[in-house]
Amino acid sequence: MSPFSVCLMAIVALAILGLPVGYAMIAGSIVYLLVAGQDLSIAAEQLLQGLRGSFVLLAIPLFIMSAELMNVGSLSNRLLHFCNAIVGRFRGGLGHVNVVQSVIFAGMSGSAIADAAGVGRLIISLMTREGRYTRSYAAAITAASAVVGPIIPPSIPMVLFALVSDASIGYLFLGGAVPGLLMAAALMALNSAMARLRGFPVEEAVPLRAVPRITFRAFPALMMPVILLGGIYGGITTPTEAAAVAAAYAFLISLVLYRDVTFAQAYEAVLTSARSSASIGILIGGALVFNYVVTIENIPADLSAFLADYELSAVSFLLMVNVILLILGCLLEGITILLVIVPIFIPMAQVLGIDMVHFGVVVVVNLMIGLITPPYGLLLFVVGSVAEAPLLAIIRDVLPFLAALLCALAIITFVPDVVLWLPRLLGYNG
């Protein structure tokens, strides 16, 4: 049995026994080094050099912290009131509010889980009040709309894709803007159809004279994505520095301007952010060590040679990648797939002339859809816990939204200009 086979068996066995995947990858890689007769200190060297040498990774805890600060204060409430004033007056209005708040919140957190667990808790409560919507439907559209969050910039998964592919983070962020809006439009169109089919209520329209006041109250929160993205594309800040500005801005407007967050709550938000960041950091560390094993085993080159024998076109390759990632998304956590599986596909994509910004957005959309794909679908469990709805009922209601997102994915995959139009408009030469 080859050392690589022993490594894979060790990782799978440890993961099945309940060890976190990041630790399992580190342990399996150490087993590989031991069996292959290599210096065991290579594992520590790869982990430390990978984490220390990537300045871009600092953006992840900063984006997470800005989302946490929003959730403990009134920022989320103010955004919900603003969204309700804009789209709440239409049939199925709170469903539309759910999607629109995810689009706006996406410009602040970069995390689907933060969206569903934070603002999602508020919108589910509003939707299920007085039995206006079923708990399962409220949970389903919350999970589906949260998928849009990491597509619209900023995006933590896109930061990680930039780490493994050397693609430009700024252009990846730009590339996700139009696809994210396309996905949101698909969800809102389906929500309108479902509202008519199921007879969901029309909310009382917010008087037009109240809209300026509601907008003014939400204005500081609405300015966060403008400041963040303006800094990046204006050449003022790097993406990591912009993440720091976003976290500082969320802290200042929550504690100083709105004064609705105590120092104790801010401290708890920092602790929660640290726990989430540490969890992602362990996965990244494990992937860095395991990717060293994959590289010295020459797996990417062997896979490229294997696929080359089939003379795949770029379209066929993208279709194959979509199928593989959607299947893996049913079973594995998205960050694990992004850090371990996706790097194997990147050399082949480059050989076929597929643009890395386009490929990155396609990959991230696949992984986000995996968050609502049964049976694993992490977002299904998150919203199920929040809504206190049966998992089977949520799955039944989420399937139409899943179909709508898959249609959007097909357009994003096979019409590259949907992704590349905005980056090219702003100077991208890919």
What does this structure look like?
The chain has helices at residues 3-16, 21-36, 41-52, 59-72, 75-87, 93-109, 112-117, 119-128, 135-146, 156-165, 169-198, 211-233, 239-257, 263-296, 299-308, 314-329, 334-351, 356-370, 378-387, 391-414, 417-425. The chain has one domain (39-425). The protein has 430 residues and is mainly alpha-helical.
Q: How many DSSP helices? A: 21
Report the sheet-strand fraction.
under 5%
**What shape does the CA trace take?**
globular
- Summed over residues and divided by their number, the pLDDT gives a mean of 82
Helix content: over 70%
Q: Please mark out the parts with pLDDT under 50 across 5 or more consecutive residues, or reply none.
A: none
What structural class results from the helix and strand content? Answer: mainly alpha
Task: Report the end-to-end length measured between terminal Cα atoms.
Answer: 43 Å
Number of strands: 0
For the sheet with most strands, the description reads: none
Count of folded domains: 1
The oligomerization state is single chain
What Rg do the Cα atoms give?
22 Å
Element-level helix/strand string: HHHHHHHHHHHHHHHHHHHHH
What is the strand and helix layout of this fold?
Blueprint: H1 3-16, H2 21-36, H3 41-52, H4 59-72, H5 75-87, H6 93-109, H7 112-117, H8 119-128, H9 135-146, H10 156-165, H11 169-198, H12 211-233, H13 239-257, H14 263-296, H15 299-308, H16 314-329, H17 334-351, H18 356-370, H19 378-387, H20 391-414, H21 417-425
Helix pairs in contact: 1-2, 2-14, 3-14, 4-13, 4-14, 5-6, 5-12, 6-8, 6-9, 6-11, 8-9, 9-19, 9-20, 10-17, 10-18, 11-18, 11-20, 11-21, 12-13, 14-17, 15-17, 16-17, 16-18, 17-18, 18-20
